[in-house]
Structure formats: C-alpha cells, structure tokens
C-alpha cells in the first residue's frame, strides 16, 4: 500500500477502504508513515470529510492502536462525562464525586489543557500532594472503593490519537468534525466506560462556537459511542459566558468545593445537575443527584477521591501574590461578559499553556465579582486578576478590553442547556456548511 495513493484518493473525493484506513492508522502509530504524508491526508480529510463507514473504521482503528480497558469486574456501574472544554468549566470536579456518591464508578481519564480552556488535571494539581498518574491496579481499586478517579490517560490508551493530535495541532487540521469526533471517542471508548454523557459547548469560549456545528459534532459522537457499545447521550450547553465566577486552576478548585458544600454559582450547579441526571439514568441508578449534593455526600466522596491520590483536601490552595482589578469603563447593566476574552485573560495571567511542555501557574486566573444582569457604576470592580507576575497584567487587561457589554436594561435570562441529543434524535433539516473554530 502507498500513502500517496490514500492521499490522492481522499484529495479527489474518493472513499478510503477499511484496509487502507487500518494500514494508515497502524503506520502513523508505529512511525512507519512519515509526518508529512500523515499531515497531507489529515488536510484532505479536513476538506473532503469522511463517510460514516470511513469514520467508523477510522475510530475503530484508533481504539485498536492501544489497549481497551475492561472495567467489567467492578461492582458499580461505570459512567463518564466528557466536555469539549470551556472557560471556567470545573464541572468534572463536582460531577465525579457526585456520581460516586450516587453509586456509580466514574473512570475519568483526562488530558491537560492547551490554549484558553483549562485542563481538569491542571486544576486538580493545584491541590497539595495530588498526583495524576495511577497504575492500572490503583485505578481499578479506587474506582471500586471510592467510585471516582480523575487521572492522566496512560500512553497505551489510543496511542494513534497522541500522534495524530500532535500533528493536527501544528498543521491547521484540528478543524474537522470526523477528526475531532474520532479523537475524543476513541479515547473514551478505550477507557472502558459503559455509559458516556457528552457536554458539547457552543458560544464564544467553546471550541466550536456555532451551535449547529456543535450539534453535528454531538450527533457524530453519540452515534460512534453506540456503534462501540457505549450508551452515549449529549447535552449542548452554553459557553458564551464563563461558567461560574472563576477561571484558573486553584480558583476553580475553590469554586468547585463551594459547589460541593452547597454554595456554588447557580449556572455551575444547573449544568452539573443536568449532566448528573443523565449519568444516573445511563447507569440505571436510583439516586437523586440534587439530594446527594444537598446532603453533603458528594463532598465526602470528593475528600476520599483527593486522599486516594495523595492529596490533602484540608490544605490551603495556592494564592497569587498579585491581585489586580478589572473595572467597568462606564455605568450600566452587564448584558454579557465574553467567555473567550476571560479565558484569554486567565491564560495570559499564567493559568494556561501555549505549548504542551509549558508549566502552568496554580494560582493565576480571573475571578468575576459581577455577572450578566448586574448593574454597575463606572469604575466598579468587575473581576479580580490573579497572577504570580505583575508583568503579565497589561496583556490580561488588553484581552478584557472588549469583553464587557453594558446596556440600559436587563438581558434575557441565559438558557444554559440548548438541547439533548440521543441516538434517536432526528437529523438536522439542513446540514450546516460553515465551520467556525475558535482555535
Ligand atoms: N479534544 C480532543 O481530544 N480531540 C480533538 O480533536 C479536539 C478536542
């Protein structure tokens, strides 16, 4: 077989055969296919897309490039959540222990954040002593005992994605629904969960701002999950404004703990409980997540989850030596605070990384003091900017310069959950033909 034949066939709109796709994924994983040929095929896929059969084979080959975990020995039903990522999205920190308290096992294997959306592992690493790396036996033991694990994915889990994602990141080939769907789902299917709830974000802070594109991605992932025996449901949720008040690692952990204590921001709690209800239903459990949260049972599971991974849940979280303020330029009612701008500001303050080798600051980030619907006076503080290095403040202020929309009247209430996509959801009336990516 020749890589050039595959590239030319896809470039010209042809359909690749199962053997060709499997040969390509194996060659990429082993290094037998050089990066320039792999990248050329990826770009052809960006332009030409994939047929459902191509996508099914491509995803299966990515799963088969490594190990598929077997969690069938656990006494608890397994169910996980994946979010396409957003600003202030600390839902996993509340949701995983909440589902553990409801009786499930949540095997959340995650990656680190890149760009303006933070990574769950980076957030957890703000907790003193907590470690992301677990052996397979530790992973299984914790799932059984505690019911929730947030840990780093091991190198043998869909290794083809590791190679392909690194290439896509530097060749402008992230922007493709079949490539994103196969990348996310190959990892989640290999993780061994029986049920999966997808939180597909739309709006300025999302990977795919356009809701129609988010819907298409959700439908594609839901159908891939079912094809591999994973019961999958997606919620399409609003990421046009930050979720909660905090964006930045330790700031988000603190806010998640507030939510676990029953005192979280209403938008964070609403999204978390909506996802939790879906997960409880998929796992076939007879539990009420709102009740569990209110009774403090999720907080107990959180402490157990942190302790099991070497963390000290009672230790103080890191704080930044410098806290500056972002103020309102005029009086008015806040109708919108742009999520992407807040995420960029947190990133510029040190909370995120530009390259995957970069370190992140645990303490840096943005904490909003005002949100949409609040009336503010000129000069009033809208947010605190936390950083280790005052030289980073001007870039953060610059990122926020267009973030605020002030009006005379109160905005419409935010609708956080736009739709629910299941295997039986009807197809869109007209497939969308434009792709607008935020990165
Ligand atoms: N997240 C992933 O894991 N893969 C993608 O392709 C995009 C986002």
**Which molecules are bound besides the chains?**
uracil
Q: Which regions contain 5 or more consecutive residues with pLDDT less than 50? A: 431-439
Overall outline: globular
* Biggest pleated sheet: 4 strands, mixed
Radius of gyration: 22 Å
Task: Explain what you see.
This protein has helices spanning 3-11, 18-30, 35-48, 52-64, 91-101, 120-124, 136-145, 159-171, 177-190, 211-227, 249-260, 266-283, 289-294, 297-308, 339-351, 393-399, and strands at 79-83, 106-110, 148-152, 195-202, 231-238, 246-247, 322-327, 332-337, 365-368, 375-376, 381-387, 404-407, 417-421. The chain has 439 residues and is an alpha/beta fold. A four-stranded mixed β-sheet has the order 1-4-5-13, with helices on both faces. Helix 2 (18-30) packs parallel to helix 4 (52-64). The longest helix is centred in the middle third of the chain and has 18 residues, at 266-283. The relative contact order is 0.15. Residues 431-439 have low confidence and may be disordered.
């Amino acid at each position: 077989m020749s890589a050039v034949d595959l590239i030319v066939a896809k470039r010209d709109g042809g359909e690749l055969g199962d053997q060709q796709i499997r040969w390509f994924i194996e060659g990429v994983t082993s290094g037998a296919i050089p990066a320039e040929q792999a990248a050329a095929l990826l770009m052809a896929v960006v332009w030409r897309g994939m047929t459902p059969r191509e996508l099914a084979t491509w995803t299966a080959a990515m799963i088969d490039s490594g190990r598929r975990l077997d969690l069938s020995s656990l006494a608890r039903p397994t169910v996980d959540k994946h979010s396409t990522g957003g600003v202030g999205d600390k839902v996993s920190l509340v949701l995983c222990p909440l589902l553990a308290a409801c009786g499930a096992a949540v095997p959340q294997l995650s990656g680190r954040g890149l760009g303006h959306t933070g990574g769950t592992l980076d957030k957890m690493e703000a907790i003193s002593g907590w470690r992301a790396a677990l052996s397979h036996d530790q992973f299984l033991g914790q799932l059984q005992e505690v019911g929730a694990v947030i840990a780093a994915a091991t190198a043998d889990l869909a290794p083809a994605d590791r190679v392909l994602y690194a290439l896509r990141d530097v060749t402008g080939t992230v922007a493709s629904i079949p490539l994103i769907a196969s990348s996310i789902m190959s990892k989640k299917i290999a993780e061994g969960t029986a049920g999966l709830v997808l939180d597909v974000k739309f709006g300025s802070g999302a990977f795919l701002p356009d809701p129609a594109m988010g819907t298409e991605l959700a439908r594609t992932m839901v159908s891939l999950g079912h094809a591999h025996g994973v019961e999958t449901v997606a919620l399409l949720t609003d990421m046009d404004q930050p979720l909660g008040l905090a964006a930045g690692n330790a700031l988000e952990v603190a806010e998640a703990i507030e939510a676990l204590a029953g005192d979280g921001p209403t938008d964070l709690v609403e999204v978390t409980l909506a996802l939790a209800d879906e997960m409880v239903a998929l796992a076939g459990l007879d539990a009420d997540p709102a009740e569990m949260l209110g009774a403090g049972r999720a907080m107990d599971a959180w402490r157990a989850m942190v302790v099991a991974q070497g963390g000290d849940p009672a230790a103080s979280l890191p704080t930044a030596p410098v806290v500056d303020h972002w103020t309102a330029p005029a009086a008015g009612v806040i109708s919108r605070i742009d999520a992407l701008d807040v995420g960029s500001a947190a990133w510029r303050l040190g909370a995120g990384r530009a390259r995957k080798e970069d370190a992140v600051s645990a303490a840096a980030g943005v904490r909003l003091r005002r949100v949409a619907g609040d009336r503010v006076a000129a000069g009033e503080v809208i947010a605190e900017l936390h950083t280790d290095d005052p030289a980073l403040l001007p870039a953060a202020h610059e990122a926020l310069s267009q973030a605020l929309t002030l009006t005379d009247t109160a905005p419409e209430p935010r609708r956080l959950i736009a739709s629910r996509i299941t295997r039986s959801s009807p197809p869109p009336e007209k497939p969308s033909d434009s792709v607008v990516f935020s990165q």
